UniProtKB/TrEMBL annotation:
GO cellular component, one term: protein-DNA complex
UniProt protein name: Winged helix family transcriptional regulator
Pfam families: Trans_reg_C
InterPro entries with a match to the protein in the record: OmpR/PhoB-type_DNA-bd, Sig_transdc_resp-reg_C-effctor, WalR-like, WH-like_DNA-bd_sf
PANTHER family: PHOSPHATE REGULON TRANSCRIPTIONAL REGULATORY PROTEIN PHOB, REGULATOR OF RPOS
DNA-binding region (UniProt annotation): 1-98
């Protein structure tokens, strides 16, 4: 079990919760959240996310991460204009915030 802030993921069962509410993520959404949470507090580059989540070294679409991130933020209740969980670091990547 991995817990950051009030978000928990269980990689063994591929289940996730925000507080007491279970969140139904798709396979890629779960992989994206897990990749970010496992490196919480650190910036994870888009290239690394494409490699670890999408298992590719080339960009199938420059919007792939953004689209999935939008769905993840919505499901987590994280406002993209004032994010508290996942922050976009322009030109560098994404960071799952520890506080």
């Amino acid at each position: 079990m991995l817990t950051v802030q009030d978000v928990r993921v269980d990689p063994a069962t591929r289940r996730a919760w925000r507080g007491e509410r279970e969140i139904g993520f798709s396979r890629k959404e779960f992989d994206l959240v897990h990749a970010l949470m496992s490196r919480a507090g650190k910036v994870v580059s888009r290239e690394e996310l494409m490699r670890t989540v999408w298992d590719t070294t080339f960009w199938t679409s420059s919007k792939t991460i953004d689209v999935h991130l939008g769905w993840v933020r919505r499901k987590l209740g994280d406002d993209s204009r004032r994010p508290r969980l996942i922050t976009t670091i322009r030109g560098q990547g994404l960071r799952f915030e520890v506080e």
